[in-house]
Amino acid sequence: MAKTTIPRAVVPSTPARKPSERWLRIAKTRQNAKSGVLLPCGRMVPMNDTHQNPLFAALNPAQQEALHRLNGPVMIVAGAGSGKTRVLTHRIAHLIATGVPPETILGITFTNKAAREMRDRVRALLFGNLAPSAREPLLATFHSLGVRILREFAPQAGLPRSFSIYDRADSLKIVKDSLRELGAEKQWEPRALLSAISRAKGDATTLSAYRDRAATPFEEIVVRVWERYENALQRTNALDFDDLLSRTLLLVESQTEIQQILQERWRYIHVDEFQDTNAVQYRLLRLLVGKEQNICVVGDVDQNIYSWRGASIRFMLNFESDFPGAAQIILEENYRSTQTIVAAANELISRNRNRIPKVSHSTNEEGSPVRLYAAYDEHDEAAFVARTIRERLQEGVASREIAVLYRANFQSRVLEEALLRVGVPYKVVGTRFFERKEVKDILSYARAALNPQSTADIARIANTPPRGIGKATLAALLAEREHTLAARARNAVASLRRDLKAVAAVLATEPASHAIRHIMELTGYLRMLEASKSEEDKERAENLKELVSLAAEYDHHAPPAGIEEMLAQAALESDQDTLRDNHEGVALMTVHAAKGLEFAEVFVVGLEEGLFPSYAGLNDASRDEEEERRLMYVAMTRAQKQLWLSWAQSRMLFGNRSVQAPSSFLSEIDPSYLEPVQAEEEAREPLRVIYLDE
């Protein structure tokens, strides 16, 4: 998706609502907090009665302990499938039931999907009393929290009142342009340079500090590109994804008054997936925690899989020393997987040294063995997966209950071909809705109208619909040299400016969905797609209709706050956010994208040395081997009832056919948990003669 414009909105005050009976019941509960909890039936039960209080009744003893310890620092070590989301939501609901004002509670997650799920669960636990309003807990991702803080304190942060968010595609384009300016586009890989800049920002390293320590040719070119990169961001009033946190950290660190405001605003802070925090996020957290030290973090060192983007397990390992007196609660009951899957995963991860010791145990049945298939090559492996899934669908398993996980994205192609051949529906997770061309085009109109300095958006929409704006005219437009153009070109530019002015007027006065409809009508985009006979265009038209439906979810905000919030969420969408709970089709995704998800049956493919574990992840240090093992642990623990593992004896990699060895991780699992699967010969892919020296 393209960058998103986030002006600092002045939102009219919302008319006061008449309190509902249910909300009055919550208010009464607060008044009687010392006495107990008022149930929907009207009966009062003791607050900490673990048998009668419904917030305790559904929890095991370790989970209940998290509700008893409401004050002071708490670290919950939550194994895979141990019900950590349930604990967090019950804890937040319990805080509210005991009289803590909802708006003083902050919950931080790593995906929008997780934030929505937590919000819905808290509302359900409180009998639906938390209707959308200002008086509810703030449940957000780190990045959306950064957007919120920077928007509120834009002048103090040294930012314009409206700024844009660059996504990775926009950032990558700047890096490529910078390399061309330097005449170095053939010597350096743009993605590697962008990753280095992103990693430095995530580690709270400034450009100045990076410049001072640059010692290698790679680091020196990073400095030169970074300088141009920052200049481009400033020219277009834009921040990149990492700036949302690094600029927030700089603001809160340098402005003690703002720090105090935020500490007083959020007195109880909760952090999910704490093992995945990086240096900037952790430093920001420590600044937000007030003198009362009411912070509760939930995580699992065994599921830390993002060190390549700055996440560090040391923050979790050092939590008790950073927050003296912190309580540690370990959740070891696995409610997701069978005993066999849990035992196999335990044995694998126990080989890691850098971890907090725990032994998960399942509350479910023993279950079937983990099935292991040794394929001839990647085609045979894909055919086996497709055949097996088709059989499982015929036996009544829903397609949305099955996932195929792989280490790298390139592995999906052969799997897609095999699934298509046998007629199995599937969805490749990672194809983000907001990255589709037609969606980006419409949203670019909104962004350009809100932020006239957004040159990338203006370039995108200049000829949508066609206006006769060529490259030379566009260059003059972006350089603000329209006076040098011929009359026809000036008229074309004037047409674009009129359209943007009209869009800006609608954004300022109309709800989000009305504004999106107006842009579609103004451009004729939807009419054009609907008039086409192409099936692809018909699908694109449906995507635009879905965009209007999505925008309607933000209509309760006063203009232009609704469209601003929608654009922010579009910029912050993750791979997991693309997978709806009611999706149809088998899910194909990388193991990283599967984090936090669960499926009845899971296939983990490509378990070969060099692929999984990836040799790319083993070149630096032994700690990377542990991360690869953690990644395998995450893959295994996505499965609820059945886990399938497979590897290929031969695979085409980077254009060359190579002989593959089974993953060392397979030898780390007790054979008693594994059951080799032999494919029926007539079902196997036809045997191909492979010449390895070609």
Task: List its traits.
disordered N terminus, disordered C terminus, alpha/beta, Rossmann fold, Arc Repressor Mutant, subunit A, 694 residues, 14% strand, single chain, 6-stranded parallel sheet, 21 strands, 4 domains
Structure description:
This protein is an alpha/beta fold and 694 residues long. The protein folds into four domains: 63-151 and 255-331, P-loop containing nucleotide triphosphate hydrolases (Rossmann fold, 3-Layer(aba) Sandwich); 164-236, Arc Repressor Mutant, subunit A (Orthogonal Bundle); 367-425 and 582-676, Rossmann fold (3-Layer(aba) Sandwich); 435-579, PCRA, domain 4 (Orthogonal Bundle), CATH 1.10.486. Helix content is 46%, strand content 14%. It is built from 29 helices and 21 strands. Strands 14, 15, 16, 17, 18, 19, 20 and 21 form an eight-stranded mixed sheet that branches. Strands 6-5-9-10-4-11 form a six-stranded parallel sheet. Strands 1-7-8 form a three-stranded mixed sheet. Strand 12 (333-334), helix 16 (339-349) and strand 13 (361-362) form a beta-alpha-beta unit. The chain starts with a strand and ends in an 18-residue tail after the last strand.
Major sheet attributes: 8 strands, mixed
CATH class designation of the largest domain: Alpha Beta
Strand count: 21
CATH topology of the largest domain: Rossmann fold
Helix content: 40-55%
